[in-house]
Amino acid sequence: MYSADLTPPWKKQQPAPEVTAEPGLVVEEPGTGFCGAVIRCEAGTVTLEDRFGKHRVFPLEPRGFLLEGRVVTLVRPATGPVRPARTASGSVAVPGARARVARAGRIYVEGRHDAELVEKVWGDDLRIEGVVVEYLEGVDDLPSIVSSFAPGPDARLGVLVDHLVPGTKEWRIAESVTSEHALVVGHPYIDVWEAVKPSSLGIESWPRVPHGQDWKTGVCRALGWPSENTGAVWQAILKRVGSYKDLEPELLGRVEELIDFVTGSAGA
Known about the structure:
Elements: E1 18-20, E2 26-29, E3 34-42, E4 45-49, E5 55-59, E6 65-67, E7 70-75, E8 106-109, H1 112-129, E9 132-135, H2 142-149, E10 157-161, H3 169-177, E11 182-186, H4 198-201, H5 215-223, H6 230-239, H7 249-263
Parallel strand pairs: 1-7, 8-9, 8-10, 10-11
Antiparallel strand pairs: 2-3, 3-4, 4-5, 6-7
Protein name: DUF3097 domain-containing protein
Pfam families: DUF3097_C, DUF3097_N
InterPro entries: DUF3097_C, DUF3097_N
């Protein structure tokens, strides 16, 4: 016997749009509130990774996820399992993500070259987090800069210092300004150039420059690079940096530490 559906049209549940579970697509599972990027999609399931690296597996059910607040049905890509798209820093990329309004917190680095390298590798992450990077042109004025900045719980300050070695002037300055809301970290390299892996530049190693000689000029002369324009040499070096894989781990760890500190993500 025929049974008519007497449910009014406006009360019927409308089908949700289908969205392909492409790598990096950020969705929320409403039942748990878990929000993350797609890193794997297999028959019947999708794996999400949140910004802290935690993984959760969910079934591919109709109307099972929220995309920008809209109910959607995730479907498996036609090509099969997917791999996550990554930023230059190695983080899961967030397609179409808008830059966050800048935080009150900041990250300071010593010079323009440091700032350009951080932007090249971590720029996407910094924009999503709303973190601005500025440069100091040396650390001698760091105490007055920190004092004027007045770090606090909602305005943390992170500082990256070149060649931060115990007992040096830079070390003493860093120690004097470090506090609960101001973190100064450093890498062991004389200049941020050294944080680029020699193999990425086609050289065996960074040459040693005699004490008292300008380091960049000495390096250029030893390697046969034009020493009269170190700025142009740096731009050539920067072009060879494609991702975090081209940098030494001593720099990678310190920058990630500062981002976590300024955003309050440390230990999350």
